[in-house]
Amino acid sequence: MEPWLIVVIVFASIFGTYLLICLFSVFRIFHFRRALKMRLIALSAILSEERSALDVLVVTYREAGFLGEESDALAISSLAPIAGILRDEAKVKSLQESIMSLLRRIESFEGKGLSSAQRNENEAIFARLEDLVANYRRIAALYNRELIGYEYWRRHPIWRWPFSLGFRERKRLV
After folding, report:
1. DSSP for residue 65
2. What span, in angstroms and rounded, lies between the C-alpha atoms of 142 and 45?
3. pLDDT surpasses 90 at 15
4. Which of 9, 30, 93, 164 has the most beta carbons within 10 angstroms of its beta carbon?
5. What is the DSSP code (8-state) at residue 108?
6. What are 136-161's pLDDT values in tens digits?
7. What does the alpha-carbon distance between residue 81 and residue 166 come to, in Å, rounded to a whole number?
8. Are 98 and 118 in contact (CB under 8 A)?
9. Cα–Cα distance for residue pair 155/157, rounded to 1 Å
10. 90 with 21: CB under 8 angstroms?
11. What is the tens place of the pLDDT at every residue in 25-57?
């Protein structure tokens, strides 16, 4: 066998191995992108559930006269109805922060001026909201884990150049 042929075979096998690794990385990136989309769908579903539960509390405390300040009206208006699925991480994060700030404000009233039936109903809603917040945090942690994996495969030094062509978007932690 000729020496130049051996060199060509060695370089071809190194290049083939490199291409297989790049192909594997592309599949991993698509897997992470799909997982990130699914996590965002789950987060937006939880946020819409939180929003609907919070609407009941807002009505109850407005009737009792506790949510009459301008800051309360601004916080309530910032929780515009969720239309469809949120696909932007910044919107998901800001909506969750608005929900949590309004929820803390409502919790500060501690059921003052409410009948016992309303208090019992509010306790059930608060328990539901606590479960939703716990689920939000769990899914947000999974989203952030998937995002770190996505960024790892996208920015790996050996094959960064092929992915800079089509995967430029920078995702944010939730």
Report:
1. T
2. 15
3. yes
4. 93
5. T
6. 889 989 888 888 877 787 777 766 66
7. 33
8. no
9. 6
10. no
11. 778 778 888 888 888 888 888 888 888 888 777
